[in-house]
Amino acid sequence: MKSLQVSDVKQTYRAEDYDVVVVGAGHAGSEAALAAARMGNKTLLVTINLDMVAFMPCNPSIGGPAKGTVVREIDALGGEMGKNIDKTYVQMRMLNTGKGPAVQALRAQADKHAYHAEMKKTIEKEPNLTLRQGIVDSLIVEDGECKGVITNTGARYYAKAVVICAGTAARGKIIIGELMYASGPNNSQPAEKLSENLADLGFDLERFKTGTPPRVDGNTIDYAKTEEQPGDEHPNHFSYENSDDDYLAVKNQLSCWLTYTNKKTHEIIRENLDRAPMFTGVIEGVGPRYCPSIEDKIVRFADKDRHQLFLEPEGRNTDEWYVQGLSTSMPEEVQQDIVHSIAGLENAQMMRPGYAIEYDVVAPYQLKPSLETKVVKNLFTAGQTNGTSGYEEAAGQGIIAGINAGLRAQGKAPFVLKRDEAYIGVMIDDLVTKGTNEPYRLLTSRAEYRLLLRNDNADMRLTEKGHELGLISDERYNQFIQKRTMIEDELARLDNIRIKPSDEVNTFVEQFGDKPLKDGILASVFLRRPYVTYDILMQYIPASDVELPARVIEQIEIRTKYAGYIAKAEANVERMKKMEAKKIPENIDYDAIDGIATEAHQKLKKIMPETLAQASRISGVNPSDIAILSVYIKQGKIAKVTE
Amino acid sequence: MVLTTTEFDTIAAISTPVGQGGISIIRISGDDAIKVAKNLYRGKNLDKVETNTINYGHIIDPETQKTVDEVMLSVMRAPKTYTKEDIIEINCHGGIIATNKILQLALSYGARMAEPGEFTKRAFLNGRIDLSQSEAVMDLIEAKTDRSMKVALNQLDGNLSHLIKQLRQDILDVLAQVEVNIDYPEYDDVETMTSQLLLNKATQVKASVEQLLQTANQGKILRDGLATSIIGRPNVGKSSLLNHLIHEDKAIVTDVPGTTRDVLEEYVNVKGVPLKLIDTAGIRETDDTVEKIGVERSRKAIDMSDLVLLVLNSSEALTKEDLELIDLTKDKQRIIVLNKTDLPAKLDLAKVKQLTQSKNIISTSAIEADGLKQLEEVIAHMFFNEGIENSQNDVVVTNARHIGLLNQAKQALDEVISGLSAGLPVDLVQIDMTRCWELLGEITGDSYQDELLDQLFSQFCLGK
Question: What is the ipTM of this complex?
C-alpha cells in the first residue's frame, strides 16, 4: 500500500494581530495567557489540541511540599491554578502537619478531566483571550526581535510579545521498550518544527526525558490488599478566594491506596533490563533524579526489597487509576508482568502502558529573570521548555512569563520575584543563574528563606503585587487589607497587654512543668510558649474588639511563636538585598576586565547576571571574582562596557 | 540552602605587626562593628560614646566572663572613617595570646576574618580612596586573595580537614533526613527525624566541636607560647628559677638585686610546652621598690598569664605579701614552687596546702636544680594532660579564622539545642544546623551549594 501523502502549506496568510501570543495551553500556557489577557492585552492562546488544555499527562495531583506553596503564590498573583483545583479536586490533604509552619503543604488529587474542562471554560470566558487549535512551526523574528508566530496552517499572527510553553511536545519522542515514535504527551501530535526554528535563531537546546507509569482499570484492583489513604477531615482550599465552608466532606472524597513492589517485581525488572530503554542506550535525554523510573530505582537502590506505590484515581467519571511510583518505559508485556506482581494488582487490567518521553529544552541560562530570552527580544519561555518538571513549576513560570509579556506589550518594566518573596522567585533565579542538568523540581530545601515563604502567607507576600499588576480585583484586595490590618492590630495589642500572675494562670503553666509567673508577662511573650495557643491566651486576657477569623489567628500564632527565627531569616534577607541593589550594567564587557578567574569569566559571560547577588550565586564564581567585579560596578567611571 | 554574602560582613583583623610590639590593635569594620565590640567590652556604653573617642575598659570572654585584657577602645562612626563604615579599634597590651584571643572573640561574636587588603578594598569601594588607585587595589585584592587562599588551604592540616569533613558529613546525613521528611512526607523508607534524634546529633557534634576548640587552645599554645608569669615577693628566687628555665646564664643571679634588662617576654621550651615568660624584666628588676608597686606589677603579670608559677621561700615563714599573692592567683592555673629547699625549712607546708588547695606544690632548690625536673613535668602534664607530646598526629587548630568559625559553629549548635528544648519543630531548628554545616564548610573551603540535594538523591530513592 502507498504511504499517506503529506505536505506543508505552500503559502502563509496574515491573520489577526495580537498584543501577546502564547504557544501551548498546558499549565504554563494557561496561566500565561490568562495573566496577559487579564492585564488588558489582546491575547491569543494557540495549542495543538483543544481537548488537552491544562491536561495532566502524568499524576492526577496538584500541590505538595514547595509545589503547594507555588499554587498559593499563583493565586495571590491572580492566577488560576488554585481556583481550578479547588473546583475539581477529589481528595485534599495537608502534609507535614506534625512539622513547623514553613513546611506544611497542601496537596489535592484532581479529577483529571474536570480539571481540563474547567480551565478550558475559564479561558473561553476570558474577554481578551482567544483560544485556538494550531501548531506553531516558527517565529517571526526581525532584527533580533520577535514579532509573532506562523502556524502549520499558514497563519501569521503578529504580536508585541510571544510566550512559548511547548512542554514535552517540543520534538517529543515516546519510548516503550523497543517502540519509539514521534509524539507529544499521551499520544498527541508533537511540535516538530519549532525546535529547529529556535536552533536556527541561535538557541542552545538540550534534550530531557521524563516518564509516566501505566494506568490500570479500577474495577480490577483488589483494594483489600492495599492500605487506604483517605483525605483530611479538616477543611482546606488552595485559593484565597475560597472558603473552608466549601470543603468536601471526607465521605465525598476519593481515597488513594498504598501498595508496594516486591522481590518478584524486582526480579522481573532485572531479568528484562536488556530490554529497558533506560539502560540500552536508547534514551539520550537526561531524566530527573527525584522521580526515577522503577527500573532506575531497582538498579540504583539494589538493596531495597520494596518501593512504595500509590494508586490514585484519575477522576470521578473514569475507572482509570494511576500507579504512582511505577513510571517505566519497559516493553508493554514486561509492564504487564510488573503490574501483576504487585499486591492488589494481580488481576489488574492495564489500560495504558507507561512510557518515557524525550523532548527539547531551551537551556535556561539563556533567559533573563523576567523569562524573556536573551537571544530574541520580546520572546518569553516557560514551563518544561525551560527545563522544569511538574504542573506547579510550569504554572508558576507561566504566570510570570504572561505578566512580563503583557508588561512588554504595554511598554512597561518587567516584573521579577526575588528569592525572599516567593518560591517562584527561587525557581526562576535557580534556572537563570545556575541552569539545570535534569528536569528541575522545586524542593523546600532550595529556598534559603523557607520560613518566610510559607504556605500560609502567600497572600501576605504577593496580593499587593497582584493588585498593582491589575490581576487582583479591588474587592479581593480590600478583603486582603482588612485581613492584614486585623493581624497587625492584634499583634500590636498582644504586645501591649500584660498577663498578671494569678493562681489560675500559674496552675495552668505549672501543669507543663513551667515555673509560676512572678511578674506580669506580655501576652505576646506568653503566646510563644509551645503549649499556649491563641484560644488559651484569650482565657487570660480580654478578647479582641473584632471577632478574628481562624486564618487571622493562624497568622498571629505563627508570627508570634516563630518570631525569633523569622527575624533571623529577615536579617539574612537584608544582607542579600544590599547585594541585589548592586546592578551590573547590561552592556558590561567581561573581556575588558582583568583579574577575574577563567572559569568565573566564562560563566559570567554566559549567564550575564543582572546583579552582584545573582553573580555570587553562580557556581564557579568566587568571592574574589565578586570583589573585582564590584570594583568595576561601584566606580561607574571605570566600568567597562561595550559600545 | 542559605547563600552567604560576604560583601557586607563586619570584618576584623589584627592591624599591627604581630610580634614584639608593646601594643597591638585589633580593627573591626562594618555595620555591626559596635555591636561586636559591645559583646566583648566592659566599660562605657559604646552606643552612647562620641565618635572618634578612645575609651578605657576591659575585654572579657562573654562565655567565661573572664577578663582577657585591659584595653583602650576607639570608636569611629561612619562615614568619616577609613572604610567609611563604623570602625572599632581595640588597643590591647600586646603579646600574641591576648591579641589573638581578642580577635578570636570578635570572630566568634559576629565579625568575619578580614581578607588581606579588605579594609583598603572597602575604603576604595566606599569612595574613600582616589580613583587612580583602583587598578592597584584590584591587583592587591587579586594577588592577596589568591595567595591567602592557598596559604589558608596549605595551613589546613590534613587531619583537621578530615575531621571537619567527617563532621560535615554527619550533619549532612541529618539534614538530608530532615529534608526528605519534609519534601517527601509519605516516603516511608527513611526514619522520621525527631526532636530527640536531632538533639542527640547536635549534642554529639557539639562535643566534637568543643574538643576541637580545646585543641585550639593547645594549638595556640604550640604556636604562641603559654603565657607564664613567675610571681613571688622579693628575693624568693624568681630569677634563679627563670634562669634555670631559660637554660642560660645570661640573667644575673645575685643576692643584691638591681640589674634591669629591657625584655618583656622570653620564650622557652619546657618538655615541648613553649612558655612565654611574662615580664621577665620585672623579675630581674630591683626588688627594692615600694611593696605596693611590686604587688601592682604582679597583678598585671598575673592577669596576662595562662599559668602562674608562684614562688615561696621555704626557708622563711609566710608573709602578708605571700598571702596576698596566693589570693591574687587563686583563679589561675598555678604551680606553687617552694624554693630554697637547700636551706632549713621554716615554711608551714600544711598551711600552704590548706590555703592553696593545690595539687601542684613542688619543692625546688634553684641553686641545686632539685625538683626543677619535676616542675617541668608538672607544667607539661597540666597542659598536655592526654600526652599530646607523644602523639604527633593529634588534630590541632591554630588558625584564628578556624577558631572563630568553630566558635560560631558551636553557637549555632547551642541554638539548635535550645530551640529543641523550647519545643520548636525540627524543620525550624534545622536552620541553625544548616548554619553550623556551612560554617564548618568555610573552614575546609567546601561550600558546594547543591551538596545537600546530591546527598538527598543519592541516599534516598524518592518518588512522590
Answer: 0.81
